[in-house]
Design goal:
The complex is a heterotetramer, with two copies of chain A (351 residues) and two copies of chain B (390 residues). Chain A is built from eleven helices and nine strands. With 351 residues, chain A is α+β, with helices and mostly antiparallel strands. In chain A, the strands form three sheets. In chain A, strands 1-3-4-7 form a four-stranded mixed β-sheet. Chain A has a three-stranded antiparallel β-sheet with strand order 2-6-5, with no helix packed on it. Chain B contains eleven helices and eight strands. The chains are: A alpha+beta (351), B alpha+beta (390). The interface between A and D is large, with 57 and 64 residues.
């Protein structure tokens, strides 16, 4: 039982943090918003940082890192509200293609291609650009489709850095069918929800930090508003929720490959906890900011909007809550002390 | 206590309902924070006034019908029931109007009220300043009295912000420091100014949805006649507090608005009942019950006011209640929209044409504007409960 | 449409208030608790004040007041945590017996007897003393039973001023049977829930007032704790809930005799709103009091305990919420503007 | 990161489980706040110690097993899983014990730790004073150093309150002003005193359930040897803060406690599923998830501490989280009990022998003791987030 990250993982996280906070600043995002397009010209640099091949095995030119470590990376991407489709490409498509022994994994790691995802849980594809490919999951097929073969309709999101599209297509390359396809789609959904939860943790931390900074600087009634207990308590509550959501998300990452139902339950908890923390923090943040938080002049809006979008992705709160309900209230999963890590240990009365 | 409408009240309701059925635009108007939408909303105000519905509680001489508060509530119920447009003139008719009635001279009333009711002059509020948000007394903008060619003017200098409607409106009102070295609540005067005056510059502020729902107003040697002052010199704070009272009080957020949202929320729930989590239905019911409670509280207060009662600091309870209810209703709706919650009105797939998202954005401002809910809770604790100031 | 109380009603309320706050002080209650019994020797005085016959017609020696006025009386009784069974005797039994043309109504008004209630919604009878009678409601019978004929088992409540008993009996006088009995039981339930809601309003106001007084007096960190924003906001929130629960309860009283389903819905709302306000105020009050609120030394505990008891009486939150659910989400009752007072007016699209 | 227990950990769990299965009383003990219950709980502590389970994390020399934090959590899980009695010695073993290890002399450790682990000396805490509740630095009780017959004593004067266990316990600990005119955090010393000493009077305080769960302690010329001082003179505040840190930190409320409650809540829901409102199930699930989150957070923190990390102000988050979760779980349970919620353990009809009511009462104290949650939120805001003090 060791619930810590390795030094390697933490160092990679620190490197990613330094890089992302330097490159993907609020000013950068503001520039992208003003230019009316999420310019993704920065992708090659992300590839160079090793992000694209983060989960691709060494043998295929990737970093061969763990899902746990990828959660840390997703947190950092969330913290800067990074617009690039990191979770799609590097978190879902790359390791899945690698597991299928597809050359595409190595190509992703090398930056030669970007593969996005289309999944029944998500009605749209995000950030689809010329030259990209789409891994499309459905009940009985997993297909790889070139952007060139796709008819798209643009769909407008409140998040100015999300570029959504409906896709329609006929020409596809089928990667898997039948039961295997269902298994792959379920796995993609788990990873999608887990890593999105990671991004939400990062967004939450960012909103708390920017609200804290504002509360220290902004004066009303002759003092910094951060001296008011109501402001303190809004942020302390948001901070507490975040502190307690983190280990929930990390646990889900660490047990992703264990017992299937337990993994599904852990991911459901992770998505619910991270989304609740993020939604609450967004409302606390705008309340602390006051009027300025309601405008394009503060950075906050970009982060709140991303939160609202991500809450609905890879299964919303209802979707995951219904699964927990079916297992806990209406199923037979044991609860209580000594059951939390049950599938990995003694516990749950086997003894 | 008799909670039945009188025949006259039923008759009035029928009249409102019939008129609205014949006049409310079939399609929702574009946002009033866009140039096109603003003018269409102004047209709607003119249509309303053509039926003599501009502001039914006002005296007949100012374009009203002299309705009492219960009739006003009936009007509002029918208005929201009919899905009629937002009132682009709300800063005027709901805030400045009542203030003018109470503090204005006869000349001011005659000059300003009829075009206000008619939609010919749309008003912007100019309460806040960059360093005077929730701390409204930290006002720095100045109005210096000068006489030129035998005429008395105020020269306005300074800056206002979060001025809703100011981008497209005709007139603004706010308080200015008329006594040079005065502090806090003292030495302020309440002044009306045309937004197209020389020396006034408007800088639109883009709000969450991208529209310019409010603006900064810069005053640089802008001159207005002394006759544009409402009340006495130095009485500005007192008048502003009365106006803010109207804002937090009965009229700004009539219950019908929230009852419409609760009804739509029930519909949304029914459409999604199969996929949402088990608690959702009860959360929706709680919203419905609270919208009812808000309606009941408003009728209760209106009845007491009509019987000679006065509204006091407990108006702060209203502000807290409706703003938190509105945010909660929209938060629950957003949750039910799932992966489509992020879609704007421009997306073909957007549920209910993006109104839930739009409403959620708007609801987030509720606990902030017109005095944050933190300030309102302080007011309740200090004035209704007698707790000591810090 | 007139949502105000009459001058008469308000004067009666003020008289009751003065009397009750003078007679039923926390010291009195404390004495009753220490003596180990809720001494109800004060009942004749309540009779003299007209409380027992409050809802009994003039012709039978009562005050002939309205249900609306009785809610105000129940509020005052709640404000002082009065232990006597006012709602049972004067709010439910007396008017029901009067409606059945039973002599018992006049006897209640005259103080000759006290009639308590036993109802399927409530498992116990409260404050049953020698010489009392019990009006027992069941699905198909309404019976009047003399205490002498009842076997009781005492049941211990956390509220030291509630004296509960299980009752068992064979000897009864049947007042109504079949459909009529069902109607009477339903009416008793409506009145019970409504007037209990009234008591809860009073208890809530009392807890807010005593917390306010404590917050002004108690000093920590060199200042009255009422200067702290967190304390202010706890009480402001409780006060706001109370302000918005009151008209809900008053509406239910004013429409009790109208359309049956609407009346039932209004009462459900009243009980839910008052119980929620009271539960929230109790938690705010103990938090403001700190440790002292957790003891018998402060008055608060008597009020909190009464709240916890009353929340479960005459249908708990679940019971009433399920009814609202059946009408609003799963029924066809119209909602939205112009429907609130619908059964009394135009509205709901008849036009 | 590897969230599987090792074979050694599984083996340890088996050992705990087997021992408890053979020793935990079949019937719940009476409340430890009654004379009879207290002694039965003390007996249980002796039974525990007989199996060497008194305080497994302590070094072997003081009656422990030198277990690490993960083993401690496993022990706690099995302890709560077995339904074993509350720890009447908790003020000693969880608060004073760790403090003694950190600040005590070897002689103090040898004198106090073994009887503490054995249940032979039960400790009461004496943190608060009538005017020093959440404001712990407002201590007025004095300890004046005197020498008589060549021996050095402290003469204790003053009053402590909210002293849990003090009615029946053997020893107490608290801080006293050793420097006469010192202010606030300065000039305080941490002193241990026998509760039966001359000059010490205990007045029981009746708590919500009627039992005397805590007491006032009056000191009137009570003398204790100087050797009863823990740490240096004047270091009292520093030591007390460390002790309070333990109280808010990992050990006082181990996750198993809340996981048991969550499991019982799920059972209660299943028994009442037909009659409760639609949202109840999801509210129960949210509690279950939060109890899991609390468990996960504890393992996460324990792992970090074992890897050399330190626990800081974020311990205040723990206090907020468990206390609000516990109150919420019991509030929901009370709601499900409906008309039987008011029944005490003495009522034959009481669901689950009145434990829900008892637990609800206890849970209401959670957000108050060990520093109110308002104070905890201030600490988080100021120390974790760097917001300015008022």
């Amino acid at each position: 039982m060791d619930f810590t990250f390795t030094t390697d993982e933490l160092e990679l996280r620190d490197g990613a943090r330094e890089y992302l906070r330097g490159r993907c600043t609020p000013e950068t995002l503001r520039g992208l918003v003003e230019s009316g397009t999420a310019d993704l010209a920065g992708w090659p640099e992300l590839v160079e940082m090793g992000f694209a091949g983060f989960l691709v095995p060494d043998s295929a030119g990737g970093l061969g890192m763990s899902d746990t470590a990828f959660v840390l990376l997703a947190e950092e991407a969330g913290y800067v509200a990074m617009p690039e489709p990191l979770v799609d490409v590097a978190g879902i498509a790359a390791p899945l293609l690698a597991a299928l022994d597809s050359d595409a994994a190595a190509q992703i790691a090398a930056g030669a291609i970007r593969v996005l995802t289309s999944h029944p849980l998500n009605p749209y594809v995000n950030q689809l650009g010329t030259g990209d490919q789409v891994l499309r999951f459905s009940d009985d097929k997993v297909e790889l489709i070139a952007a060139a073969d796709i008819e798209t309709t643009t769909v407008d999101s409140i998040d100015p850095l999300r570029q959504l599209a409906h896709i329609e297509t006929a020409e596809t390359a089928i990667l898997a069918e039948g039961v295997e396809a269902g298994t792959l789609a379920a796995r993609a959904a788990l990873r999608g929800a887990l890593f999105t939860a990671g991004e939400l943790l990062g967004l939450t931390a960012a909103m708390i930090d920017m609200s804290r900074a504002y509360a220290v600087e902004r004066k009303q009634f002759g003092v910094a508003i951060g001296t008011f207990q109501a402001v303190k308590h809004h942020l302390a509550t948001a901070f507490t929720r975040l502190e307690f959501a983190r280990p929930v998300v990390y646990r889900a990452a660490a047990t992703l490959d264990g017992d299937e139902r337990r993994a599904r339950l852990a991911v459901a908890h992770a998505k619910i906890a991270a989304a609740d923390a993020a939604t609450g923090a967004a409302e606390a943040a705008i309340q602390v900011h006051g009027g300025i938080g309601y405008t394009f002049e503060a950075d906050l809006h970009l982060f709140m909007k991303r939160v609202w979008a991500l809450c609905g992705l890879w299964g919303d709160r209802h979707h995951h809550m219904r699964f927990v309900d079916s297992e806990i209230l209406h199923g037979h999963l044991q609860t209580g002390p000594a059951t939390t890590f049950a599938a990995n240990g003694l516990a749950s009365g086997q003894h | 206590m008799d909670l039945r409408y009188t025949d006259e009240q039923d008759q009035f309701r029928r009249e409102v309902r019939d008129w609205l059925a014949g006049h409310v635009p079939a399609e929702p108007l574009p946002s009033l924070d866009t140039p096109e939408g603003f003018e269409l909303h102004r047209d709607w105000e003119r249509t309303l006034e053509s039926g003599n519905w501009g502001m039914v509680t006002w005296p007949v001489e100012y374009g009203g019908r002299g309705c009492n508060l219960i009739e006003w509530l009936i009007f509002e119920e029918e208005y929201y029931r009919a899905g009629a447009p937002l009132r682009v003139s709300q800063n005027g008719i709901f805030l400045l109007g009542p203030t003018l009635m109470e503090f204005g001279t006869d000349a001011q009333k005659a000059r300003f009220l009829p075009p206000m009711a008619a939609g010919d002059e749309i008003w912007a509020q100019a309460w806040s300043e960059p360093n005077a948000g929730s701390d409204m007394a930290a006002i720095r903008s100045r109005a210096t009295r000068v006489t030129e060619n035998g005429e008395d003017f105020y020269v306005l200098e300074g800056q206002k912000t979060w001025s809703s409607r100011a981008v497209f409106a005709d007139w603004g009102f706010g308080i200015f420091r008329t006594e040079p070295d005065s502090k806090r609540h003292k030495g302020l005067s309440f002044i009306l100014f045309p937004l197209d005056a020389d020396g006034i510059t408007i800088r639109p502020i883009r709000q969450l949805d991208g529209d310019a729902g409010f603006a900064e107003i810069f005053f640089d040697d802008a001159r207005v006649p002394v006759a544009n002052r409402l009340g006495d010199e130095g009485q500005g704070w007192h008048i502003a507090m009365a106006t803010a009272g109207f804002e937090r009080g009965l009229m700004l957020r009539s219950p019908a608005r929230f009852q419409v949202t609760a009804r739509r929320l029930i519909e949304l729930y029914r459409q999604n009942a199969e996929r949402v989590s088990p608690a959702t239905g009860e959360r929706v019911i709680e919203c419905y019950l609270d919208a009812e409670a808000y309606c009941l509280n408003t009728y209760y207060t209106a009845s007491r006011l009509m019987a000679g009662g006065r509204i006091g600091s407990e108006a702060s309870c209203n502000k807290i209640f409706w703003s938190e209810l509105d945010r909660r209703m929209h938060r629950i709706a957003m949750s039910m929209l799932g992966a489509r919650a992020e879609l704007t009105e421009h997306a073909a797939d957007a549920v209910d044409a993006g109104r839930w998202l739009d409403g959620y954005l708007f609801s987030l401002a509720g606990p902030i504007y017109a005095g944050t809910n933190e300030i309102q809770r302080n007011i309740i604790a200090e004035r209704c409960l007698g707790l000591p100031r810090a």
